[in-house]
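Run log, item B.
One chain of 209 residues. Sequence copied directly from the ordering sheet:
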Amino acid sequence: MLLKREIYNEEWEQMLRVGIRRRYLAGDVIYIQGKKNVGLVCITKGKAKNCIYYSDGTEKLVCILEGPAVTGETSVIDGEGSIVSTEALTELEAVIVPVSAVKELMGKNPRIMMFLLELNAEKIRALQFQAENIVLTTRQKLARMLINFYSSGVYTREAEGNLVTITHEQLADFLGTTRPKITGALNEFEKSGLIKKTGGVLRLLMVRG
């Protein structure tokens, strides 16, 4: 993710040096849930989403990542299959670091393990934040997310400001509701002077925590 990245500049560069560079188009699947030995995906440019697909075809959006960002760390740490699928939302450039290379780096530099654990903890906190929404109405869930996109799992540079590029469908997938309900709630918020919508960009006009 973005928040911890600047603390680990040296470790980030170490991982980039030993990985394989890949390019993806919007909509390309980088890896699917359950797959083992994916390696560490270091996103250098572009946006991706982590999501969970259920047997009935529904999707739970877990987080949105914008380079520089990392995904795949859970599988690297515990050796099990990936718990999410990752899909490119835009044209994307990434460096895929094989599991063996990551473990070798961790043996030489324990800070890389700390880096991955902090990233993993940050995503777990986002899931907790999302889980707390279960008892809320759609309007309450959306308002809570608008106040703090980053805690909800939108790990983009703009999510720390007052402009966020996100679709109604993505908001619905985050909050476990439908696109029409999200659109209706956003229209209410705009009429109340809390947000301004321009295409897929939301401008937040309320005071944020």
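Observations after the first pass:
- The CA atoms of residues 165 and 198 lie 9 Å apart.
- The first strand starts at residue 20 and ends at 24.
Flagged for discussion on Thursday.
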